[in-house]
Design a protein that fits this description.
The chain has 18 helices and 13 strands. With 520 residues, the protein is an alpha/beta fold. The strands form two sheets. The protein has an eleven-stranded mixed β-sheet with strand order 1-2-3-4-6-5-7-8-11-12-13, with helices on both faces. The chain has a two-stranded antiparallel sheet with strand order 9-10. Strand 9 and strand 10 form a beta hairpin. Helix 10 runs antiparallel to helix 11 and helix 12 packs across helix 13. The chain is globular and about 65 Å long.
Length: 520
């Protein structure tokens, strides 16, 4: 779940909340991998056995009973598409195709496991393709076909499309002082223009990419994968998607892991406040670690070190810094780079180097981190539609405060809670104020009565999904089991320690449910 960029000097990359994924895309691309087993390239046809679709709605039978063909793809994987109704209230109408990728089990297969890396708007297809062979343990890969998918509106599944690469570059270089009427008016004018482009390019799918619909899609995928119960590993926003599924289909819940938990009962404003405190804690943890190194670019106490970073960022407000490729780094993009580095301790050294350069007047490394955060590659191409899908999904999922006075009061509270990041976390409602499709759901507690044990995993100093959210989700779920990792960064499985991987693997592969409140 990504941190929410919006503020007085608001970057134009994301409208609110950085609901990020399990790991940053750059980390997946750079992770070490093991050689893949030889793949059987023959097409495979799969469909649901009768017992897999018992009790499903009659009007959806055509989707639950569909046959799909898995073909070799991406060198060592298998891919297919699954049809789902565009509008579940009118399932006989238009359908859309969801893209799936499968990494076949390497040993005795127990079933399939769907994975979602977060967002909303992140690609599960990319997660499996780019990092599946290193991110998921050999034990887990031996027992399950790991299946990534792009949810409706994401990347390969009728993607939300708005502005082009050049416009995205331009908007990331702009900032608006939302505490002024002129800044607010300028931002709203540009937002309306962007929304018009989204509607022009994606009008068919935009009203139907809410989380509830995506959860219903997963049950169709479960049947097509020929599993009586759904096995699922969701990260960040993927925990909300998984919890939503569990609430709708508790009888179909198999092994579930919800890692980097998002509390589904929270409003967007609550989420922003939780992230404000989480990211502020994270930058102080970074400073504490950095100060142990004689080459650290900041000095003094952790608070003094963080203040030096704030002071540096303040110089970018009125004087965006030029970079070698002709673009500039604004205060908002500086904050995006800082926030991005808080997602994984693997990025802390890069942040140290980038800040060292920035203090010397070289902002290129800061821009590189901000580009990673925005999914922009070295050629200037944006490799995902996460920014667009993120906005569109959240506008359907969350009613938001759009009253200017209330938003400004909220922004002031956020800045007080987080002097470093608060400025980028306010004014969440502006993006959806003029969104042409109203929210179709609202925050609510989920109990999933009747579901089997569900792992809820929290990292104690997670900036994007604070640990308290894992505790509250576990408390809501009737069968929730809390597992914690005492660490920094976002999510735990695949990036923490042997205790987490052993606990999760034993649950999925051997059916060993850990004791509630297991600490790693």
């Amino acid at each position: 779940m990504k941190a929410v960029p919006s503020s007085r000097h608001r970057p134009r990359r994301c409208p609110f909340g950085m609901m990020a994924g399990a790991v940053a895309g750059a980390l997946l691309l750079s992770s070490c991998s093991v050689p893949a087993p030889a793949m059987d390239t023959a097409p495979r046809v799969s469909s649901a056995a009768p017992e897999m679709i018992a009790g499903t709605p009659v009007e959806l039978q055509m989707y639950y009973t569909q046959s799909v063909t898995w073909n070799s793809c991406e060198k060592t994987f298998q891919c297919t598409t699954v049809k789902v109704p565009l509008d579940y209230s009118a399932p006989q109408g238009k359908s859309i195709d969801l893209a799936l990728i499968r990494m076949a089990a390497t040993a005795q297969k127990q079933g399939s496991m769907l994975v979602n890396p977060g967002g909303p708007g992140a690609s599960g297809y990319n997660m499996v393709r780019d990092g599946g062979k290193s991110y998921f343990s050999p034990k887990l890969r031996g027992a399950y076909d790991i299946v990534g998918f792009d949810p409706r509106g994401v990347q390969r599944s009728d993607p939300v499309t708005c502005t082009d690469d050049a416009a995205r570059d331009q908007e990331r270089q702009e900032s608006f002082d939302l505490d002024t009427d002129a800044g607010l008016a300028g931002y709203e004018t540009e937002t309306k223009s962007d929304i018009a482009q989204c509607v022009k390019n994606s009008s068919t799918v935009l009203p139907y990419i809410d989380t509830d619909s995506a959860a219903k899609d997963m049950d169709i995928m479960r049947a097509v994968l020929n599993d009586k119960k759904l096995n699922y590993m969701g990260f960040s926003y993927g925990t909300k998607l998984g919890a939503t599924y569990a609430g709708m289909f508790p009888q179909n819940v198999g092994k579930f892991s919800l890692d980097g938990a998002l509390d589904p009962s929270l409003s967007i404003e609550d989420i922003s406040m939780g992230q404000a405190t989480g990211f502020e804690q994270a930058i102080h943890s970074w400073a504490t670690q950095c100060l142990k190194d004689s080459k650290c670019p900041v000095s003094g106490t952790p608070e003094q070190a963080v203040q030096q970073i704030r002071d540096l960022n303040a110089t970018y407000v009125d004087n965006p810094q030029k970079t070698k490729d002709g673009r500039v780094v604004t205060s908002g993009e500086f904050n995006n780079a800082l926030a991005f580095a808080m997602y994984s301790t693997d990025l802390w050294e890069l942040l140290k180097s980038a800040l060292s350069a920035a203090f010397q007047g070289d902002s290129d490394p800061i821009l590189t981190l901000a580009d990673y955060s925005a999914d922009r590659d070295a050629s200037g191409h944006y490799t995902s539609n996460t920014t667009f899908a993120f906005s569109a999904i959240n506008c359907l999922d969350y009613p938001m405060i759009t009253d200017v006075a209330a938003m400004r009061a909220d922004a002031a509270a956020l800045e007080k809670a987080s002097p470093t990041f608060g400025k980028m976390l306010g004014y969440s409602g502006l993006t959806c104020k003029d969104w042409p499709y109203p929210a179709v759901s609202k925050p609510a507690r989920i109990t999933a009565d009747g579901a089997g044990p569900i792992l809820v995993i929290g990292t104690t100093r997670d900036p994007a999904t604070p640990f308290t959210w894992a505790v509250s989700l576990r408390d809501q779920l009737s069968s929730g089991v809390l597992v914690s990792w005492d660490g920094d960064g976002h999510t735990a499985y695949g990036r923490s320690n042997a205790c987490i991987s052993t606990t999760v693997d034993a649950y999925f592969v051997e059916g060993k449910v850990p004791a509630d409140k297991t600490s790693c």
